[in-house]
Amino acid sequence: MELRQLYYFVKVARKEHVTQAAEELHVAQSAVSRQIHQLEEELGVKLFVQKGRNLQLTPAGALFLKRAEVILSDLERAVIEVHEFLDPEKGEIRLGFPHSLGNTLIPQVVAAFRKLHPNVKFRFKQGMYPSLIRDLVKGEIDLAFISPYPKENEQVCGEVLLTEELYAILPPGHSLSDEEEIELAQLKDETFVIFGEGYSLRPIVWEACLEAGFEPKIGFEGEETDTIRGLVAAGMGVSLLPELALHQSGLLQPAKVRISKPAVTRTIGLVHRSNEKLPLVAKLFHGFLLRYFKRD
User: Fold this and answer.
1) Which of 10, 20, 117, 278 is at 20 to 30 A from 42, Cα to Cα?
2) Above pLDDT 90, what percent of the chain?
3) What distance in Å separates the CA atoms of residue 15 and residue 5, rounded to the nearest whole number?
4) Cβ proximity of 49 and 56 under 8 Å
5) pLDDT category, 248, cuts 50, 70, 90?
6) Is the N-terminal amide bond of 148 cis, ω within 30° of 0?
7) Which phi and psi angles does 107 have, rounded to 5°?
8) Pairwise CA distance, residues 64 & 58, whole Å
C-alpha cells in the first residue's frame, strides 16, 4: 500500500467525484482511478459505488476513510514537528474560525503576530461551529476560534477570549435608527434578516427575541455577515449583528443601535484538542493570543 493511494482515496472520498479530485490533485483522472482500483484490489473490497454522476463510499470505504484520515493527519503533524524542531519560526499554524470573524478580528491578530514572527505561515479554514469542532478533533486544524465557547466538550478545551455585544441593525431612515438604544421588543413586528440553520449567531438572535416576548418573523436568510448587513441596509428587514461585523465602510450601511433589554452577547473562545500537546508554533500563537486579548 502506497501513501499516494491514501491521498487519492481521501480526496475522492471528500469530493465524491474522480474528475474533481484529479483536478485538485493536479494529476490525470486515469491516474486517480488506477490508484483507487489498486487500493481496492489490495484490500479485497469495493471502497466506492457509483451513485448518479458521483461516487459514494461503501460501508467498508467509510470505515477505511476514518483510519486513512488519521494516518495522513498524523503524518502531516510529524512533518510539521520536524520542521519546527529545525526552526520553530518557520512553522505553519493551522487555524479555523467562523465567517463572522473573517472581516476584522482574524486579520488583526494575524497581522499583529506576524510583526513578531514574520516567517511563520498560516493555513486557514473557515466553517460553521459543528465543522470547526469536527475539523479540530480530526486533526485538520490545531487551533480554532469558536463562538459560542463550548461549555462541555471532552474532546476540546480552551479559553474564552472575549464577550461581544450584539447590536440591532436597521435600514437607514428607520423610525428607530436615530435612537441611542432600544428594547428588542420594539422590533417584534419587523421582518428579520437572519443567518441560516447551522450558524451560531442564529440561535443567539432567536433566543434573544424569545426572551423579549416574540418569535422573529424571518424574511430572508444569509450565510455571511456582509450579506446580512447589505440586505438590512437595502431595507429588506432588521437584524442583530456583533460589533466586530460592523466595522465596514461604504455608501450603503445600516444604522447601528444598542439593545438595552435584553442584553444580547456572544462569547468567542480559542480551543484545541484535549489531552494533546500543541505543535510548537501553534503553542507560540496560543500564548500570543492570550496576551493579546488580556490587554483589553
Assistant:
1) 20
2) 57
3) 15
4) yes
5) low
6) yes
7) -60, -35
8) 10
